[in-house]
Amino acid sequence: AERRHALLELAARYTLPIVEDDPYGELRYSGEAAPLLAALDIARFGAPRHVLYLSTFSKLLVPGLRVGWAVAPEPLLRRMVQVKQGLDLHTSSLAQAIAYEACRDGLLQRQIPRIRGVYQARRDAMLGALEQYMPAGTRWTKPDGGMFLWITLPESYNTTELLARALDRQVAFVPGGAFHANGGGANTMRLNFSFSTPEQIVAGVQRLAEVFRDALA
What we know:
Blueprint: H1 2-14, E1 18-21, H2 37-45, E2 51-56, E3 68-71, H3 74-88, H4 93-104, H5 107-133, E4 139-140, E5 148-152, H6 159-168, E6 174-175, E7 188-192, H7 198-215
Parallel strand pairs: 1-2
Antiparallel strand pairs: 2-3, 4-5, 5-7, 6-7
Helix pairs in contact: 5-7
């Protein structure tokens, strides 16, 4: 929280915009949530001034519901509407109506605790499988929320080169190099735990571990 207050202070001092992209904020399974920068911004100035807050219904209701929302200073919102209209006129009216009814009816608030429980079980299954099967020297994050784990393999591995072998075993991941602007991260990868069942996750991690062990054989 202190770092967020300090960041907002810097934004106010130097008139800098902050983009707070928060698609996973409601998906927290442990730990204490940090205050939203947008909330701190509004609390201090009485209205959005330095923070553009972005989120989406696709991670909370259904993935195919491509509807998001923004909280921002009014002049910026007007420009965003103009740009949106120039790009594709507007988001699907049906999708917007579904999102509206989900909020009005209370479906969204009932859905959030449910998916938290589902995703937490899947996260825990992946953490347990990594502990059981991954090669020695492998490290991974233990996130309090979200949908992903970040894996760091020993330096001798290249996950981009190993992706094809994993796909042959019906397992997929995102090579970590795509997340490194400086060309690093060859031995890293991102795993998603939100889609598969705990049983599928355990089987998938076991297959991945076999791919990695075979690469050194």
